[in-house]
Please model this.
Amino acid sequence: MHEVHPTAVIDDGVEVGDNTRIWHFVHVSSGARIGSNCVLGQNVYVGPGVWIGDGVRIQNNVSVFAGVQVEDDAFLGPSCVFTNVLNPRAFVERKSDFRPTLVGRGATVGANATVLCGLRLGEYCMLGAGCVAVSDVQPYALVVGVPARPIGWVCRCGERLLQTEGFGRCACGDRYRIDAEACTRTE
Model:
């Protein structure tokens, strides 16, 4: 069972998982799939054919356009922005030029961040508020700024990792192997 606010519009052919809550003025387009245990905040738009995993939180005023895939447990902050065409023009039809974007498992896209189309946001990465992602983001990377640039690494729990000699650790107990370009959780 899921909960849908009376002002929300859910088109025909939409799949909504159990325990998902859809709030005020949301529009979910036909062919979209929203997983279980998700929350779609006020004024969210989900485009046709969009796939949203389980446990995803989409905050107010976010449009998830066709071509965007959001994996399990991702967080899309208030008013973050996705694009689906690199060079839009009002008078040129470019729907066949949509570039797919992947938001990896557990990733966080901060409030008012912009993600250009065709990118891959790695699992558990974190995009700071207001940043503009113009290239792929590595798993566990913390990126900020315009354009977004890496400034460190974060744990699965979202805390910044303390780094020493190729290793990272978090107060939660998780440990990571870190080199100049990658961060990998160790068991």
Notes: The mean pLDDT is 96. The chain has one domain: 3-157. The chain has no helices and 26 strands.
